[in-house]
Every structure is written in structure tokens, then in C-alpha cells.
């Protein structure tokens, strides 16, 4: 049974390749984390930050408001529009938006159509007062990320960046007593299954995965709820889904495409790439390789 998301869990092989000692995971986790954090700070992943207990992605600003993409279960919604008080911490560990704002969830979250699970409608927008611009590595205003209006690419790599507990192989996850802003990590898997007419995306995880023969070397964990799933499409990283839930061998996410009209109705300034045809399977493929 899928559980609420717990940050990134990586396979034994990747941990070892990055200099980790499988006999002393806690003592060697620091060096591995540095390498994965560096990957997480490549553009456009700098749009990823965190909310209390969850991950979120900065979409841009309008009229002194910051707009964030996250999971519905990360916000205390009571209807489609709910007043909230929250904050968003950037990749630098700085609060760039905080105070009284608004949480939005789509109608499908409140009144799900038949055949649509909670994980297929686990998406929210958060509007918070802008306190400072979100910078890139050069200190210039960050370019907003691009959302993809087509179907996520089945069997293609998916990039994950999140905050929260760490894990290696099949071991229990833990925060290693590391502050949240320092738990930012990068991982990668592949979208292996698409269910519920493409609304629900699944990326398998293999605790013993050895890249490149298996790209299924990372999964989500506690604190990753709301994290964007990124895919390289036409030479550019696009957000294709939002982390919802997961378990020991898979991560689940809500596809962005079906909700783009709703997102645009709240934040018209979103950056969107036109659809590039990708076939959707509503049944398990039984395959984890291209």
C-alpha cells in the first residue's frame, strides 16, 4: 500500500559508486550527499525548494505574489480556494516567500471522477507574498521552469530533487539529524507505468540498481511530497508530474498535463511547451527498460 512520501533514496550500487561505504552508511553519507546535492543545483532544478514538511517548485511571480507547485496533501485545503499561512525556502536556504496566502486545489481533488485515485489528483498551487527574488547561481533572477502539456514520456528517465529523509538500498530512511535545507538531494529513475488514463505516473525503484544497465536507482521518501518530476524533452528539462506517494519499490506522481488549464487559470504566466506526442498506456507495461 502506498504511503505518504518520505527525501531521496538511492540504490546500494550508486551509493558505493559515489564513494559511500555500505558497511558504514551513516559515516560515509556526507560525501555522497555532496555529489547529489551538486546535481540538484543544476539549472533549472534551482526552482525547487521546500515548504514545512514538503517539497515545492517555484513557478514565477506576479504582482508581488510568488506561485508554487506542490502536492494537494501538502496544503491544508478546505475547498478549491483556502487561506493559508506558510513559507517557501529556496535552494540557498533563504525564505523568498512567506506570510498569509492562498492554497488552490483542482475540482478533481475534492470530487474525484470515477476511476481516479487520490494520487492522480494530488496537485496544488500555493500563492504567497514575495519577499525577495529567487536567484540563479550567478545572482540573476531565475528563469521560470517549463511545464510540459503532453503525456510524460514512458520509459524515459525522470529526475527527482527533494528534501527530507535519506535512504540507501532497502534500509529504513532517516534524517541523520541533518537540517532540512542540507538534505536536498538529486536522484533519477524512469517512468515505468502509467495508469488512470495517464493521470497517475509510476517510477519503479530497484534497491540494487546499477546504472546504466538499470536507471531505476532512486525513489522518493519522507519530505519529497510535492516535488516536481523532470524529463529532458527536446533538449530541455520540463516538469511533467508532481510527487504524490510511494513505497519501497516505486514512486507515484500526478501528471501535470491534464491540470494545465486549471494551473493557467490561476497563474497565466506559466511557461509551457507545446505538446510532443507520447503514447499513453493505462495498464502496466511489465517492463522497466526502454
From TrEMBL:
Ranges where the Peptidase S1 domain occurs: 43-263
BP GO annotations: proteolysis
PROSITE patterns given in the database record: TRYPSIN_HIS (PS00134)
InterPro entries in the record: Peptidase_S1_PA, Peptidase_S1_PA_chymotrypsin, Trypsin_dom, TRYPSIN_HIS
One of the record's GO molecular function terms: serine-type endopeptidase activity
Domain of life of the organism encoding this protein: Bacteria
Name of the protein in its database record: Peptidase S1 domain-containing protein
Amino acid at each position: 500500500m502506498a504511503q505518504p512520501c518520505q527525501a531521496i533514496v538511492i540504490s546500494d550500487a550508486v551509493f558505493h559508486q559515489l564513494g559511500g561505504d555500505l558497511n558504514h552508511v551513516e559515516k560515509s553519507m556526507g560525501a555522497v550527499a555532496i555529489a547529489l546535492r551538486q546535481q540538484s543545483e543544476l539549472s533549472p532544478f534551482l526552482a525547487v525548494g521546500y515548504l514545512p514538511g514538503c517539497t515545492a517548485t517555484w513557478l514565477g511571480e506576479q504582482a508581488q505574489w510568488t506561485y508554487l507547485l506542490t502536492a494537494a496533501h501538502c496544503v491544508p485545503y478546505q475547498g478549491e480556494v483556502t487561506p493559508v499561512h506558510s513559507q517557501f525556502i529556496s535552494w540557498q536556504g533563504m525564505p523568498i516567500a512567506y506570510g498569509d496566502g492562498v492554497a488552490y486545489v483542482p475540482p478533481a481533488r475534492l470530487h474525484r471522477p470515477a476511476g481516479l485515485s487520490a494520487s492522480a489528483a494530488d496537485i496544488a498551487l500555493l500563492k504567497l507574498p514575495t519577499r525577495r527574488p529567487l536567484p540563479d547561481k550567478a545572482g540573476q533572477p531565475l528563469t521560470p521552469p517549463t511545464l510540459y502539456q503532453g503525456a510524460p514520456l514512458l520509459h524515459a528517465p525522470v529526475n527527482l530533487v527533494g528534501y527530507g529523509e535519506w535512504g540507501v538500498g532497502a534500509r529504513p530512511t532517516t534524517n541523520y539529524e541533518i537540517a532540512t535545507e542540507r538534505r536536498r538531494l538529486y536522484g533519477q529513475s524512469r517512468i515505468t507505468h502509467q495508469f488512470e488514463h495517464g493521470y497517475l505516473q509510476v517510477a519503479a525503484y530497484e534497491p540494487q540498481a546499477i546504472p546504466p544497465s538499470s536507471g531505476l536507482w532512486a525513489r522518493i521518501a519522507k519530505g519529497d511530497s510535492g516535488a516536481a518530476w523532470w524529463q529532458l524533452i527536446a533538449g530541455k528539462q520540463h516538469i511533467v508530474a508532481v510527487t504524490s506517494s510511494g513505497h519501497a519499490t516505486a514512486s507515484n506522481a500526478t501528471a501535470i498535463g491534464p491540470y494545465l488549464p486549471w494551473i493557467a487559470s490561476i497563474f497565466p504566466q506559466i511557461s509551457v511547451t507545446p505538446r510532443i506526442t507520447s503514447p499513453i498506456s493505462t495498464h502496466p507495461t511489465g517492463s522497466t527498460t526502454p
